[in-house]
Amino acid sequence: MNRYGAQAQKHWRTYLPQRYATIEDPNSFFSTLGEQAATAIEQRARELAGPDLPDEGYLGKLGRLNAAQRTAEEEILPELILIDPATDGPPDETPSTSTMSAGPTWTPLVEDPNDPWWQRVAEEEDDQNDDPVTPTR
C-alpha cells in the first residue's frame, strides 16, 4: 500500500467510520485506492507542469515540478482520499445532524483541556508517542 492508500485508510477509519465499516477487505481496497490516487495525481501534475521551458535551469524546473505536484495533490486528495465527513452520507441527510455527533469540524482557537476536541487531540498524540515504531522529534 502506498502513502496515499495508508493516508486514506487512517482518515476513513477516524472520520468516516460508517463508510470504513462497509469495506470487506480494507487492505486491498486502500491499496487500489492509493494507486488510483497516485495515477491521478501524476497525470494532473504533468498537465500543470507543462513542457520544459527554454533556458530553464535545474532549480527553476525543480520548483515548477514541485509546485505542480503539490497543486495536483491539493486537487485530487479531497476527492479520493481526504473526503470531508460533513459532505459524506446519504443525500437526504443534512450535514448538521451527521456532524453534530462526531464533534466539531473546526479547531477551537483557545486551548481548553476540558473541550472534547482538545481531549481527542491529546489522546491521538499519546497514541503516537506510545507507538515504538514512530520516531519522536
Automatic annotation (TrEMBL):
Biased segments, Polar residues type: 94-104
Organism: Micromonospora carbonacea
Region span, Disordered: 83-137
Name of the protein in question: TnpV protein
